[in-house]
């Protein structure tokens, strides 16, 4: 199974997303979607699961949860928008991670791409896909393709969206 993972679109559907997510089985959006249209365009590519972020208004907050738990390929996945990072978790996150023990923890918010194993949490995979939108201080728009098989996250591919040739259109 291949997951397409992105965050912080802030209402912008990057023109390279169809190519970046070609062949994915499921898309996960880790919040700050920005508009329902972004979700609709993603849903044309593959089934979508998303959480709302701090910039998302009432319409998206009614439609999306703050936290999402999924079991895929035998892996427990927890996705939320504001999670912090290993060693510097957002308030309440460290306790929940210790108690609930996901295999994969996905969050956004920081606009900083980061993927790492967390030994103190049993080797949990921490994944922040960076930001796929135009808003924020980030210079490189990114998303991730995560390959799952046999109860393991096998490979994470970072996609730099602006480096896909067709992405040069506005």
Q: What do these coordinates show?
A:
This protein has helices spanning 17-20, 36-43, 58-63, 93-100; strands at 2-6, 26-29, 48-50, 67-72, 75-80, 84-85, 88-89, 104-106, 113-118, 124-129, 142-149, 152-160. The model has no long low-confidence stretch (mean pLDDT 95). It is built from four helices and twelve strands; from the N terminus they run βαβαβαββββαβββββ. Strands 3-2-1-11-12 form a five-stranded mixed β-sheet, with helices on one face. It has a five-stranded mixed β-sheet with strand order 4-5-8-10-9, with no helix packed on it. Strands 6-7 form a two-stranded antiparallel ribbon.
What's the total helix number? 4
Radius of gyration: 15 Å
End-to-end Cα distance: 31 Å
Number of E strands:
12
Largest sheet: 5 strands, mixed
The helix content, as a percent range, equals 10-25%
Strand content: 35-45%
Task: Enumerate the spans where pLDDT stays under 50 for 5 or more consecutive residues.
Answer: none
Order of adjacent strands in the largest pleated sheet: 3-2-1-11-12
Q: Overall 3D geometry?
A: globular
H and E order: EHEHEHEEEEHEEEEE
Averaging pLDDT over every residue, what do you get?
95
Helix and strand composition category: alpha/beta
Annotate the secondary structure layout.
Elements: E1 2-6, H1 17-20, E2 26-29, H2 36-43, E3 48-50, H3 58-63, E4 67-72, E5 75-80, E6 84-85, E7 88-89, H4 93-100, E8 104-106, E9 113-118, E10 124-129, E11 142-149, E12 152-160
Parallel strand pairs: 1-2, 2-3, 5-8, 8-10
Antiparallel strand pairs: 1-11, 4-5, 6-7, 9-10, 11-12
